[in-house]
Structures are given as C-alpha cells and as structure tokens.
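Schema walk-through. Below, the input block comes first and the output block second. Nothing else is stored per chain. Lengths vary across the set, and this one has 317 residues.
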Amino acid sequence: MPSSTSIESLLPPLKPESLQCIYRLQRYGPSVENRRYPKRRSAAVAVVLFVGRLGDLYVLLSTRAGDMRTYAHDTALPGGKYEEGDVDAEGTARREAYEEIGLPMDREKVRKLCELEKFITGNSLIVTPVILLITDHTLTPLLNPSEVRRLFSMPLSAFLHSRPSQIPSFHYRISHRISSIPHWVIDSIPPPPIVNYSMDDGEVGGKEGRFYQYRDITWNGQGLVRMHRFLTGREGEGVRPVYGLTAAILIRSASIGYDQQPDFPVCAPGQKSMSERIIYEIRSEEGPLRRALESEGLWDDWKDDSQEEKKSVQSKL
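--- output ---
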C-alpha cells in the first residue's frame, strides 16, 4: 500500500490546475459494479501521467511495434488482456506497462490515482483504464522492442481542445529522458498510410492535417459512434495520430481531471452510452462477450437485466 506521504510533496512544482487535476482524479470513482465480467474478454490500459518542466501534466504514449498482430505502428497506451496471476485491472495495467515500457511495479514510485468506467472495443473486449502518476522522476523507460517502437508524451489537457494554440507546452518532449535507450528502439518508423478526412466524414476545420478531427462510424449495428483523432506533432517522423479507443479514454481522463468538457462534441447524434453498448454486446447471443460470460458461469449476473431490456424494447414495438 502507498504511504500516507502526500503526492504533492513528491512532485516537481505544479501549476494549480495540474494539482487540482490530480486531486480530482484521486477522488474519482465510477459507480460500483456488482456484476462480473469474463476474464478472457477483459483487458486494462495504463494512463501514465507525469509532471513536465513547466508544471503541466503529460501522458505517456507509445508507438506499437510494426510486427504486432493487431494495430501495428498505432499510437497506444500501455495495456493488454488479462492474464492468469493478475489480481485485478490495476494488476493487468501495471504488468503490461512494466512489460512494454519498463514502468516499475513499485506502487510508491508509480501511484494509482483512479480507475475509469469500462470501455468496449470493436472486438468485444472490456477495457478498464487505470490512471497512474509517476512520482519518481529518476525513472528511465526501458522499451520492449517486440511490442513498442517509440515512447513520447502529450499534455493531458490536449484532449480537451481542437486547436494546439489552446494547449500549454504542446511541443514539450521527453527525449532527454530516453537518451539511454538504444538508437534502434527510437529510430523513425516508416510513415503510415495517408487517411483522408473529408468534410462528409465530419472533419473539423475543413483542412487535411488539422490537430483535431473526428469520424462517425456505424458500431456493430448499434448506430453511430464518434471516433476522435488528434495529431501528435510527430507525424513527420512516422508517428500516427491518437485515434479511436485511446483518444476516447484520454478525453474522458482529461474531462474528469480538469472538470471541463471538451470544446468539441464528444458523441455522434443519438450515440449510445458506453454502458449501453456493453449491454447490447452482452445481449447478442452469438457474440464473443456473451459466450465468454456463459463459459465462465457469469451469465446469472446479467440475464435479469437482459430479459428486462428485451421486454422494454418489445413493449415499444
């Protein structure tokens, strides 16, 4: 268990808004969930924060290795699926962050602030974001080249804004903290394919290459879901934008921490909430989430709600 030492006393000088952000995240807790999720469809990601030189909060992001089976070269948060031995979502997030970027398992050097509500991926994984704060600034990342090609940072507040001019210290880099990593780990990767964001797809600003854009997509037959996209400022080096689930998690983290809604609409018209999307996937009798619940003997946790929702839908027909 972490000691009673205040986090503030362990950190470099903080801007007042950064300190308040940390305190809000410490106090945050989603609604208590009494129902269990299948372990084989569970995952966690680590939202790793640290204090920059000017007192702002930054989040660590990585470029996935090019030979990964899924999402190769994408910008991501450290994370992955549950494995035997993981006690909980925090355990999964910490283990993955240790394996991918060498983040210490020491809970004094890397403090847990909170967990967010669960998210669902396009392939029906239930993902728990765990927000961590580095309090030991002597740490040096150690990247696992089979999983991670590059490590960089962005201001957490960036995910509340549609223009970089609104973001403090947007060009701050952590390259001075990763100078000891072998050159073959941090060399530039090949540039990703160009993605066209036309006005019909919901582009903000009307120009290719704007810092923030979005695209509304149809999500597994559930209607529209807004996919957000943020440039990192490193696209010329082959770094892909922050997109999709990673962007959604960081928008939510920043919104809670800074107690502020983004200056862009978060949801598409008529978009279902994350909990509604999870319930929909659970109701799908042929879906992997439903099959996993049944195989792990957890369907009783959910079937009553599922039956009630079916009755409600039928009554409206």
